[in-house]
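Researcher: Here's the sequence for the chain we discussed earlier.
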Amino acid sequence: MGRKIGEGVKNELVIRDPISGSEIVLYYRVPTSSERVAYMSSLFERKEDRVISRITEARQEWGLKIIEGFRDGAFEKMNGDGFIQMSSNPKSKNYDKGWKDHLKIYASDILEALSEHIFEGHRVSSMQSKEERFTEKNS
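Model: Thanks. This is the structure I predict for it:
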């Protein structure tokens, strides 16, 4: 299956959540070329003669910008003494219009994983391929 591109295209990414142990399906849009440049520029900040890492903040910020939702059942929120499913789908009975705020506050690791995969994933994939080739060659 090829990469889906264009206005209004919804892509899916499955992430294994280390906290719940479940798979979470995220819906996101592919960033534009200018957004990719802006993301890379936001990873570090120069203050006088120092370079300050802003990797975590950039990943969270850009994750919020490209995420468009998640599959129902991926997240549950407190409701009195229990939990109820939260939805990012306005047509769902469990829709929460503040779903992005909930992710920002309580699931920033998921936003970071999304950003890392989408904006930086090609670096990881190519490195893994080199490692696999090295292992196969030296086995």
